[in-house]
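Sanity check. The docking grid for 6-phosphogluconic acid depends on where the pocket ends up, so I'm generating a full predicted complex first rather than guessing from homology. Inputs follow.
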Amino acid sequence: MKKILIYHSQEEMIRSAAGHFISTGSAAIDEQGQFNVALAGGSTPTPLYEYLADKKADDLNWSKVHFFWGDERSVPPDHPESNFNQANLSLLIPRTIQKENIHRIKAELPPADAARHYQEEIQASFQQKLPSFDLILLGMGNDGHTASLFPETELVNGDVSNQNRLVAPNWVPKLESWRISFTPRLINAAQNIYFLVSGQSKANTLKLVLEGPALPHRYPSQLISPDQGNLFWYLDEEAAAELSDVNRS
Ligand code: 6PG
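Predicted complex below; grid placement will be based on this.
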């Protein structure tokens, strides 16, 4: 199931996504005793993490939440650009999440080693051949990338060696840097995926991703289509400004 949810402001979008995060997490904990969530990097999710760190989100049994990351920059965990560092400061530390529940990508290692270790950690954490996260959070870049699936990069151009992988390194020429990322195969196995997209700068790309021709090599966010799970696009009005009425109803 795919739903496009448009909110008057980023604040309202974040508040709604936080409520959904809590209900999704509580349902997973009731059903299986824990909530496995993969966080996104970038700036959009930070207010969500800060909201979830606040007492307003006390309803969730945080001791049963296991944190993973959908991608990471090839930097140490205390680096200002680390996605782990961003979530650690805004959510994990304020919520005193125990270290056994924190499964960060060891991006201080060489990218191929970091990806291999992370894939092994995910496979050890899930008793499923194809691990299915309860929730994966994603952002979308102005170029249509998501996680570290950047346009025209190896991980997106369907390199055969990656097709069965769950986590892979990805060289991003325009950033001149390595990333470690979930593959589309792992992302699409999730029970729930929330895209969080806000701001006028994303409006044109979002229209192309959601309403344009299928060009996933150029707009990798088009690769996200859950096998059996639910996809929710959390948008503010600015990001949704160019969408047609059919996607705004
Ligand atoms: C990252 C993210 C990346 C992010 C987009 C959007 O490591 O940067 O995983 O995919 O979600 O670049 O970033 P903003 O939310 O900052 O626009």
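Relevant for the grid: The beta strands are 2-7, 35-39, 65-69, 71-73, 135-138, 167-172, 177-182, 192-197, 230-236.
Also worth noting: The chain has a mean pLDDT of 96.
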